[in-house]
């Protein structure tokens, strides 16, 4: 199944926008993480957590889901396929893994934002908000996104056995 | 007469007049009696003496390409990262 050229370009534009938006939002998120982890002022930490939760809910999660969905549509609607080339398989696996971790992290962040919104934070609650897991998740996610971007740009050669079989079948049917 | 085959490693057996061919010759010349040798074929059989499939080279079986090196390295790194993540998940970040 191959998509028409105009539709394919539209989906590609949405996919690129979402992917770049996801990476950019993660970079902005990292700045807030640094503020939350290093600032000694409790008010700044609380504000940073609240903004982080908003960015996560309204920017990062939607762009991540849209990037995954449009990537699936593109791979299934073009000759690249979903399981024919190793770089596509790795891209799919890494993106699914990233979205899975993001969803879990978002739930934790939502709970933190609920506690941060309450007035009068105690020292123990502030320590919970300054969780180093923010940095681990953000830096790990950014590295993963950069790896996926490199895979998509360079498209290293290598066909899976399934892709090779499909190619042989196509050649056999094309020869009269 | 001996010779070497294409690779030059084995000797090709010498050729001579085989007994069935000699029997056919004597029968055709009328000097070998009236008995038709068993090896004589009819015209229709002569045209089917050789199996066409034996004259063709054996079909080459196309093998799938080997897994590229970068796939093996990348796969090993991905598996290590996943294992590290799972290990961290159940140790340091267990309260998340």
Label this structure with key terms:
A: 176 residues, mainly alpha, elongated, B: 96 residues, 2 strands
How would you summarize this macromolecular structure in one to three sentences?
The complex is a heterodimer of chains A (176) and B (96). Chain A is an all-alpha fold. Chain A has helices at 5-38, 42-77, 86-117, 123-129, 133-154, 161-174.
What level of helicity do the residues of chain B show?
Answer: 40-55%
Major beta sheet summary of chain A: none
Which overall shape of chain A is indicated by the principal axes computed on the Cα atoms?
elongated
Q: Radius of gyration of chain A, Cα only, in angstroms?
A: 21 Å
User: What is the number of beta strands of chain A?
Assistant: 0
In DSSP terms (H or I, runs of 4 or more residues), the helix count of chain B works out at: 4
Structural class of chain B: mainly alpha
Whole-number radius of gyration of chain B? 35 Å
Number of strands of chain B: 2
Q: Ends of chain B: how far apart?
A: 88 Å
Mean pLDDT of chain A: 93
Largest sheet of chain B: 2 strands, antiparallel
Describe the protein in words:
The complex is a heterodimer of chains A (176) and B (96). Chain A contains 6 helices and no strands. Chain A is an all-alpha fold. In chain A, helix 1 runs antiparallel to helix 2 (42-77). Chain A is elongated and about 80 Å long. The mean pLDDT of chain A is 93. Chain B has 96 residues and is mainly alpha-helical. Helices cover 43% and strands 4% of the residues of chain B. Chain B is rod-shaped. Chain B starts with a strand and ends in a 7-residue tail after the last helix. Classes of the chains: A mainly alpha (176), B mainly alpha (96). Chain A binds chain B through residues 86, 90, 93-94, 97, 101, 104-105, 108, 133, 136, 156-159, 161, 164-165, 168, and chain B through 62, 64-65, 67-68, 70-71, 74-75, 78, 82, 85, 88, 93, 96.
